[in-house]
Amino acid sequence: MILQLNPPLEMVTPLGEAEAHFLESSGDRIYFGVFQKNTGENWWWENCNIRLGKCLTSGRCNLSSIKLTPDLEKALSEHLK
User: What is the pLDDT of residue 56?
Assistant: First the structure.
């Protein structure tokens, strides 16, 4: 089932800043449907590969790093250029 997020959430993905517009759960996994800010591309990221964006008002100044598996890093290598 896909849920539309209203309002969208500011996120950080392995490809940079994005807006999450959709949420999908598949068994015990959660995916966010985002639009990357710098390209407008739609990507679906598993929960472990994204972070809620920084927000000084909410006191969210630091984000943990996103650790990609070697396979995912290789798959994204062309997009990261």
Answer: 66
